[in-house]
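Dear H.,

Thanks for agreeing to be a second pair of eyes. The structure we're designing against is below in token form, covering all 370 positions.
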């Protein structure tokens, strides 16, 4: 009986092993097939945006033909993909197929009047080809579709300005917060009256946008008017600041003098003291280094730029020390007296030095007279 049971169990065990073996063989076959399909890419579907992104990479590198080919591949998968259509249009434009590009974009806006990207690209193409009127028309539509976008408003303002539409440009700058509106300003714009203030504001915008050359042109234009002395003086002041930063010191001082002669700008923001202070510091560096000629030159620049008596007094005082150290006692005496006259409450330590300077200088002059 035991032998019979053992025989039956052996047969059953053999059958189970056989079934397991067959199952494992089938599983292995299915796994290999799956791996083979993955390797051969049979189950991989390339997404349309893969081609769009690749096209954008080519476009950024200036490889417009390659970019166009990628956009075409994207449209072969999804012929209605609007991003591929728009990007393809720009690539066509870059390949000097302007009319085809604009026609494609117009078709997009006809089918979807709310597609801001298509209008924007049309405007960009017109802008690059200097068709300002057409560019403005497209950008105005984009502004309606995407309101409160500072970058867009800034681009539109620049287009108005390039197209000599000063009223619209100024209104755009006011919207950006670049300018502050007031009844007096708005009356001039409504009457389209060019004046110093208009060009002063335009110059301020150009300078804030980093377009220094255009800013200089606008500020110079502002100085050509005769009315509104304050705006003209401010234009000279702006020009002087630009020249100072460009190390055109002689021209900056000339414009500073013109600014003061035109209108006395006494407001806190209109001062050259910070520049004068910088020249004093440069003069100190040369003074302590023993280069008295260069130190005197920088102190003189500080004197010509200083707006406040304390800064001017300090510059005169240090110029006097330079003369004294050079044994030019007469000029040293003059500068010391000027410093004290400008600021009698000069720091006590320096005041004693000035007194000593004057006393020594006076002693030498008296001795020479005898």
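And this is the sequence the design step returned. I haven't edited it by hand at all.
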């Amino acid at each position: 009986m035991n032998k019979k049971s053992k025989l039956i169990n052996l047969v059953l065990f053999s059958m189970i092993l056989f079934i397991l073996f067959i199952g494992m063989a089938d599983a292995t076959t299915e796994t290999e097939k799956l791996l083979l399909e993955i390797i051969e890419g049979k189950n991989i579907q390339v997404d349309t945006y893969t081609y769009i992104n690749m096209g954008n990479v080519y476009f950024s590198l200036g490889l417009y033909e390659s970019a166009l080919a990628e956009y075409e591949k994207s449209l072969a998968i999804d012929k209605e993909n609007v991003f591929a259509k728009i990007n393809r249009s720009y690539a066509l434009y870059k390949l000097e197929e302007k009319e085809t590009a604009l026609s494609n974009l117009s078709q997009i806006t006809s089918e979807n009047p709310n597609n801001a990207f298509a209008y924007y690209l049309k405007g960009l193409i017109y802008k690059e080809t200097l068709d300002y009127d057409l560019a403005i028309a497209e950008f105005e539509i984009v502004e309606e579709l995407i309101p409160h976008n500072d970058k867009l408003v800034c681009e539109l303002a620049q287009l108005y300005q390039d197209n000599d539409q000063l009223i619209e440009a100024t209104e755009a700058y006011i919207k950006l917060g670049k300018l502050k509106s007031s009844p007096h300003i708005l009356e001039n714009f409504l009457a389209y009256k060019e004046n110093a203030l208009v060009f002063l504001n335009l110059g301020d915008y150009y300078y804030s946008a980093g377009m220094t050359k255009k800013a200089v042109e606008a500020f110079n234009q502002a100085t050509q008017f005769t009315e509104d002395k304050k705006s003209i003086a401010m234009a000279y002041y702006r020009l002087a600041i630009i020249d100072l930063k460009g190390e055109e010191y002689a021209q900056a001082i000339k414009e500073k003098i013109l600014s003061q002669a035109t209108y006395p700008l006494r407001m806190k923001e209109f001062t050259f003291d910070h520049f004068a202070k910088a020249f004093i510091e440069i003069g100190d560096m040369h003074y302590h280094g023993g280069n008295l000629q260069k130190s005197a030159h920088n102190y003189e620049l500080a004197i010509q730029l200083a707006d406040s008596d304390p800064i001017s007094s300090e510059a005169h005082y240090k110029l006097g020390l330079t003369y004294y150290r050079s044994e030019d006692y007469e000029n040293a005496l003059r500068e010391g007296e000027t410093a004290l006259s400008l600021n009698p409450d000069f720091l006590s330590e320096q005041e004693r030095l000035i007194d000593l300077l004057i006393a020594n200088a006076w002693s030498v002059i008296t001795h020479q007279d005898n």
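Two observations from my side: The radius of gyration is 39 Å. Residues 194-270 form a domain with the Serine Threonine Protein Phosphatase 5, Tetratricopeptide repeat fold (CATH 1.25.40.10).

Warmly,
E.
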